[in-house]
Amino acid sequence: MDETLDRIHRHVEEIIGRVGSHGMDHTERVVSLCRIIGEKEGADLRILLPAAVLHDIARPREKETGLPHESEGARMAADYLNAIGYDAALIPAIAAAIRSHRFSTGDEPEGLEAKILSDADKLDAMGATGIARTFLRAGEHGGGIDDAVFHFHDKLLKLADRMYTGTGRQIAAERHAVLVSFLGALEREREIRRD
């Protein structure tokens, strides 16, 4: 499976690129989190890991066309996996996991692998990594600190309560504490500026 996963990885990297708030570095962290959570929770890694590698494959297409990356990504992933001869019995579960991974859709993941992918993707938006990605994202959208702070309140501080697995909840508790601590320090420093 590692050889096939490497092939999928190369394919995705060609499409989404290496860097950015949703670049291949994000994908690799999600894959790592999926592996950790999946092994502890007893997931089928033949479903989970390809779904993790492919979960943001349609991000560039969403930017160009406005099509939601989760639904378009599920379609693209299924087409690609069929084209490379991946086990056809596993492809629907992979596509379903990709379709339901996004925080903002409200589409509830069904099945353990889908729940783990959703948890892992949210976990990468938390903790020190999440803080770094938030400011990177703000810059990508032409924003600054105020935009990043809004994103903390609009999304990041809500993520710990949206975990599906026990392992995800444990990791989220630690990362949520980092977010709260950082945001408190940032807001105190910004108050000094306003005085």
Account of the 3D structure:
This protein is mainly α and 195 residues long. The chain has a single domain, classed as Hypothetical protein af1432. The chain is built from 10 helices and no strands. It is globular, with a radius of gyration of 17 Å. The N and C termini lie far apart (59 Å).
Question: Characteristics of this structure?
Answer:
195 residues, mainly alpha, Hypothetical protein af1432, 71% helix, globular
- pLDDT below 50 for ≥5 consecutive residues: which ranges? none
Q: Characterize the main sheet.
A: none
How many domain units? 1
Terminal-residue CA separation: 59 Å
How would you concisely characterize the structure shown here?
This protein has helices at residues 2-16, 24-41, 45-54, 59-65, 69-83, 91-99, 112-123, 127-140, 145-154, 166-194. The chain has 195 residues and is an all-alpha fold.
Write the layout of secondary structure elements.
Elements: H1 2-16, H2 24-41, H3 45-54, H4 59-65, H5 69-83, H6 91-99, H7 112-123, H8 127-140, H9 145-154, H10 166-194
